[in-house]
Amino acid sequence: MRLLTALATTTTLLAAPAMAQDMEADVANGESEFARQCVSCHVIADESGEVLAGRAGRIGPNLHGVIGRQPGAVEDFRYSDAIVAYGELAPGDDMTGTAPTGDDFENVVWAHDNTVAYLQDPTSFLREALDDERARGKMAYKVRDEQTAIDISAYLATFSPDFEVPEGESGGAEDAETEAETDGEAEMTDGAAEADAEMEMDGEADTTEGDDASDDTAN
Length: 219
Ligand code: HEC
Known about the structure:
Layout: H1 2-15, H2 27-37, E1 44-45, E2 51-53, H3 81-88, H4 112-120, H5 122-130, H6 146-157, H7 173-182, E3 187-188, H8 192-200, E4 207-208
Antiparallel strand pairs: 1-2, 3-4
Helix pairs in contact: 1-7, 2-6, 3-5, 4-5, 4-6
This protein binds heme C (HEC).
């Protein structure tokens, strides 16, 4: 059973590079933290306008599909110059080194690492990325701890099921592979129904280190 679980997890991790990192992401926690911390300013509404998360937050841009998207790209939203400039950088010019690089990326896109960094301090992140001490972003909010930012980023990625950072590029793909190879102990978090739902979203299921993970999942 353990082996089966490990195999399932391996597949999951390889299919979900956007969220892979040294720290594991808890999508369910990301969802509740998003509801708590982000919906006053952001909505997640799909192309048809259907609201999938949040209510009517309009102070910030719609975050549907934000992972894999160019920063500052929602039409009709009045972004800061700084975030637009960040989106126009070639990935290699991102001084934080957190944007995914490689042939697939002509410009910076939001992926796991840069989103996690941005969420913890948007203006400092943009200053560092642009190497401009006077850069000023418009998002006046900081996620206090890294694990929460990781969880929220993984949750946002569930709305971008097709986005993948190619293997071997930065942005987490390498970490995912290493982790999948070495970490046979990883298991689904508790809540089989939850795991199933997330699997359907194409590999966004979250995992834990397995130390306290339940063995009572869908084995
Ligand atoms: C007080 C309002 C406010 C809160 C709370 C807030 N944001 Fe924002 N957010 C903004 C604004 C305004 C922008 C546009 C930033 C700019 O133009 O520099 C933004 C931009 C973003 C972007 C970049 C979007 C893009 O299209 O490039 C992401 C990602 C993001 N926010 C995620 C979050 C998440 C996740 C949370 C919850 C942890 C959150 N924000 C909380 C106001 C907020």
